[in-house]
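tool=predict chain=A
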Amino acid sequence: MSALASWALEYVASTSLATKLDPPEPPRVPEPAPKVAERPRGPGRPPELRVVARAKGPRPPFATPEKRAHALHTFFHHELQAAELMASALVAFPETPRAFRVGLLRVLFDEIRHMRAYQEGMAVLGFSVGDFPVRDWFWERLGDTPSPAAFVATMGVGFEGGNLDHAARFAKAFDDVGDRASAAIVRRVGEEEIVHVRFALHWLGRFLEKPRADFGDFARAIPPPLTPSVMRGPTLERGLRERAGFDAEFLDAFDAFVVENPSG
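tool=predict ok
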């Protein structure tokens, strides 16, 4: 096992909140190697976090500081799971091109920065990590993703793409109650997710050996029972998604899929 794989496994398994927020410097990303079957069974959880079987973040309007902090806490936990899953992918797919794994590591550290931003936002509102329960929803669905194409389709194109929609509407919800600071954090994270989604779209095409992945490629790459219906907001933020690399045909098909499959 490479030094980077050991580092990634240790990050996922860590039960230290400090390590999750500020891990040690990672080793150099090695050249592709024959795949070694090594995959975390699940993440280590700091004692500050209360993981439950069911947990939903609050919905707008965010009339109280507690509701706003709860929303930021939910976003914090989403970013934590994303960082861990990027680390898991480094171990699960060591045979992928080095450029892909370098990109995974870059995204991982972006997610950590986002975690810290949400933690700071909660502190301004008078709350801390652990003040609200969380659910490892993304781990439940992506912990054993079978291939790199399935991983980038589900995590990057799907869930991070959906965050482009959700970030816009949640930022507006914070603005609606005068919380400009929280709105700014959410908007900044949403802007930075554009690069992540573009990265995932690019590599989905590469893994499928196509110049450009279309909506059908994306939908077929997602491991069932997941469908594109859970990977978007109530409204597609077409401007943000176009900046991430989605073309009009892809977005039209996405909208049509949701209309034709409302229970998906």
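The chain has a mean pLDDT of 94. The chain is about 60% helix and 0% strand.
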